[in-house]
Amino acid sequence: MESKNLNNGKKVVTFGEVMLRLTTPGFKRFAQAGEFMATYGGSEANVALSLAHFGVPTEFVTRLPDNAIARACIASLRAGGLGTEGIVFGGKRMGIYFLEPGAAFRNSNVVYDREDSAFATIRPGMVDWERVFDGAGWFHWSGIAAALSQEGADACREALEVADRMGLTISCDLNFRKKLWNYGRTAAEVMMPLVQYSDVLFAAEPEYREIMGVKPVGFRATTAADSSFEANLPAFEDFMRQVGERVPRCRKIFLELRNSITSNHNLLAAVLLADGQFHHTGIYDIDHEVDRVGAGDAFVGGLIYGLLAYPDDAQKGLDFALAASALKNTVYGDFNQVTVEEVESLMQGNTSGRVSR
């Protein structure tokens, strides 16, 4: 699609690790798999690809080894419409993650193989941030980049300081991954100083609890018509205001809510505190998920697009983000390969699933 003049024509920059994803076919357990399906993924790359599919000029920044697998990955990113000029080369290997998809009452399982990857060994000074941010209006990063090493956290701070000095809007997804925080510091003590740069903040309830100590309300809806969500809205508003007190600079704070009935049946909703005003969505009941990995990133990508496309309508931006996330659950792989038209159609209630001819 032709790009709208969003963000005054300025690009969005995202920063993080992209990995080789190896998935067991046919919902097999790891012990059963004689082969794996290979794709690419990673939170900040997923966000960037969503934005590119929505027609937003977007550049993805990472560090990769100079080898054939990394070049194949870059070709995949470029094929999705991403700018990759900010990628730097170095290190010995690309990170990998193995995915065993869940089914019914069996949970999905992820095994990371990213220690000493090119990105895990990134440090300040490797990326020329002033060059990367030239022509940019928005910078997005996540807690995953800070979780891998102290040097990675320092590289995040370097990027944030330059983005702040150059006047970019800064967004952060807390993205807490317990398996990654292994270098002797807690997520809270590393992340809280970095989060203070945020103009826009995303997370799930457990992540706000882990990083900021805010007690979750709990999303327990079991159908799209469940009244418990509406009854809990005052508690969710109080939750969001507590987050806002901990990050005074932040103007827009988002919370995506998910209740997993089974591995393939989930309900989604979302709330927003925007410039002191509270907003909420309805509920999507997704009873036949294809792939939930990257659904949170699809929410973030949809939300950044929504804030740029509908700058005076926070509710519409929130509704767009949740619809984008709901659609991602129907798409295999990390990347959300849907269009603005498909998201807006779902927002309008078009859920028939008929063949488009």
Automatic annotation (TrEMBL):
InterPro entries for this protein: Carb_kinase_PfkB-like, PfkB_dom, Ribokinase-like
SUPFAM superfamilies hit by this protein: Ribokinase-like (SSF53613)
Species of provenance: Mediterranea massiliensis
Molecular-function annotations in GO: kinase activity
Entry keyword set: Kinase, Transferase
Similarity comment: family membership: Belongs to the carbohydrate kinase PfkB family.
Name of the protein described by the UniProt record: Sugar kinase
Start and end residues of each Carbohydrate kinase PfkB domain: 10-215, 275-333
A Pfam family reported for this protein in Swiss-Prot or TrEMBL: PfkB
